[in-house]
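Q: How do we represent a protein-ligand complex in a form that can be generated token by token?
A: Start from the inputs.
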Amino acid sequence: MGRFRHFINIIILVILSTVALRLLFDVILALPMAASAEARPIDHLFNGHFWMISFLFSLIMVMMIYSIFVFRRADGDETDGPHIHGNSKLEITWTVIPLMVVLGFGVWGAFTLNEITRPKDGEMTVNVTGRQWSWSFKYPEQGDAAAAELVLPVNRTIVLKMNAEDVIHSFWVPEFRVKQDLVPGRETTLRITPTEIGNYRLRCAEICGQNHTTMEADVKVVSAEDFQAWIEQKSAGPSFADMTPEERGAYWASTEGFACVACHTTDGTPSAGPTWQGLYMHNVKLADGSTTEANDEYLHNSIIDPNLQIVDGFLPNVMPGNFGDRFAEREQEVGAAEGIDLDISADLIAYIKSLQ
Ligand code: CUA
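Then emit the structure tokens for the protein with dinuclear copper ion bound:
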């Protein structure tokens, strides 16, 4: 059998193996649905890489396995193989071709990055804030409407202006494909053009502490009309003056308020922080061995200065110590808008009181 025949065999086997592996990738590495305009160029790039990976793996494996079976030493053959002192032409070829391929992928990637990050017509800005361990969103072009879920009109490019309050977080909705870190002290930007109406889930893609895995938010892509209706309903907002302290407390505790529920459950199950159910006026065992009563003063101190008394079984420095400042800011905002005197800490304690 001539050399030529081996080449033909290997070429055929490499082609078959490459196609088979590429098809296998679609089964075992299937990407989630593509729901944004940015997903298309990224998926093309993924596709190119999958083909390249399939081909390289096949090229090496086919040659190796083919050689093992076809070029076996014959029984009784004790001679050495021929001595080979390299082959310049071959070495130049296997250096230059991969170099071209890698450069090609680099240029392709640069064009893709430019396409998904460049400003587009009719953009709309949404401010995103990430903190341990919740997300919140503000719509500066819609009168600063605030929400704990991200609602987006379909087929319009959204510019997310993102800020982190404490540590690095990362904005990731797999169906949109794009991902961007939120870095404390620096605003980062991400562009998304949702193309499919539906419900998605935003997750934090950067390990950011104890409750990192629960740092999620709902993402809803809706029609332009539904978006308008949602904004109008949002802008009406809650009227704090009309609410009881317990109702306000429940609102402050929710992800639309200060997201206490990210770490404190109201059903008795422990989380990053102690549960609020049945807490009020009950005895609390502290980490230093002493016991205290969960009265108004204890609860107030625990909210404003969380490291003062650590509950047995929980860690210090988990709860942010800046709620006093954040409450004061919000109290002033609402006070200016509704002309009422708020005490957010007292509202929260009233709410905890109701959770018996
Ligand atoms: Cu935020 Cu992980």
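Helices lie at 3-28, 39-70, 88-117, 224-236, 245-253, 296-304, 323-338, 344-353. The chain has three domains: 1-62+106-118, 124-235, 240-353.
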